[in-house]
């Protein structure tokens, strides 16, 4: 299956992605992790992405798109993948659809994890990551509202959006997600 995890920073996408990737046995593709790794290795992509990430802005579409295209082309993604943190803008979503369609593939389900803003703020303040100071957190939430939240409508109109309440223990949230995915699984005799 090809699954996208959508949700604001602090919604728990990373935590749920780890559980999902074990359960579904598909690779976990986190653009945030890929970008942090690029910065660590001081690659050209990392050098270009770093100032955007530090200030809480999204990095330019072209940079992440290339990372994702290269990663999806690898053998382990043939049977499916879990996209965490991508797409985050309308152009990224369009590019992903086109890229998959060219390969005769499509997204099966988009899971949107919803969490109240006050809970997000308290979760993010406790993480201690380089992009977690108050001004940067505010900027990241604003970027989500402006650029990423509209993707929900796009996927809803295609009938593949499933919304999950992100409040509760990680296991409770995971159970909700599993139920939605089970219901969305393609029939055994249709496409993988
Ligand atoms: P979180 O899970 O807290 O939302 P991520 O680890 O997914 O954070 O992403 C951290 C940062 O990496 C983002 O704030 C953004 O600057 C950059 N980033 C990650 N994915 C994308 C993307 N698809 N498009 C643009 N920027 C991205």
Task: Write up this protein.
- The protein has 192 residues and is α/β, with parallel strands linked by helices.
- The chain has one domain: P-loop containing nucleotide triphosphate hydrolases (Rossmann fold, 3-Layer(aba) Sandwich), CATH 3.40.50.300.
- Helices cover 55% and strands 12% of the residues.
- The chain has a 5-stranded parallel beta sheet, with helices on both faces.
- Helix 1 packs across helix 9.
- The chain is globular, with a radius of gyration of 16 Å.
Structure characteristics:
9 helices; Rossmann fold; alpha/beta; 192 residues; five-stranded parallel β-sheet; binds adenosine-5'-diphosphate
CATH homologous superfamily, by name?
P-loop containing nucleotide triphosphate hydrolases
Q: Shape, please? A: globular
Helix/strand/pairing category: alpha/beta
In DSSP terms, counting alpha (H) and pi (I) runs of 4 or more, how many helices?
9
H/E element sequence: EHEHHHEHEHHHEH
- Summarize the biggest pleated sheet: 5 strands, parallel
CATH topology: Rossmann fold
- Give the ligands present: adenosine-5'-diphosphate
- Number of folding domains? 1
Give Rg in angstroms.
Answer: 16 Å
Spatial strand order of the main sheet: 2-3-1-4-5
| Overall pLDDT | 92
- Beta percentage is 5-15%
The CATH class name reads Alpha Beta
Residue share in helices? 55-70%
Specify the CATH architecture.
Answer: 3-Layer(aba) Sandwich
Number of strands: 5
Low-pLDDT segments:
none
* N→C terminal distance: 7 Å
């Amino acid at each position: 299956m090809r699954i996208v995890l959508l949700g604001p920073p602090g919604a728990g996408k990373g935590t749920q992605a780890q559980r999902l990737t074990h359960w579904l046995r598909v690779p976990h593709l986190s653009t945030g992790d890929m970008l942090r790794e690029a910065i660590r290795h001081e690659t050209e992509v990392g050098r270009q992405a770093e100032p955007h990430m530090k200030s809480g802005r999204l990095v330019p579409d072209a940079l992440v798109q290339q990372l994702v295209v290269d990663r999806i082309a690898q053998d382990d993604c043939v049977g499916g993948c879990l996209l965490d943190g991508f797409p985050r803008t309308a152009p990224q979503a369009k590019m992903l659809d086109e890229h998959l369609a060219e390969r005769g593939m499509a997204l099966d389900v988009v899971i949107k994890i919803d969490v109240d803003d006050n809970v997000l703020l308290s979760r993010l303040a406790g993480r201690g990551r380089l992009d977690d100071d108050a001004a940067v957190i505010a900027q990241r939430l604003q970027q989500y509202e402006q650029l990423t939240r509209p993707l929900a409508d796009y996927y809803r109109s295609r009938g593949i959006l499933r919304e999950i309440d992100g409040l509760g223990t990680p296991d409770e949230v995971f159970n909700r997600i599993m139920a939605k995915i089970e219901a969305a699984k393609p029939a055994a005799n249709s496409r993988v």
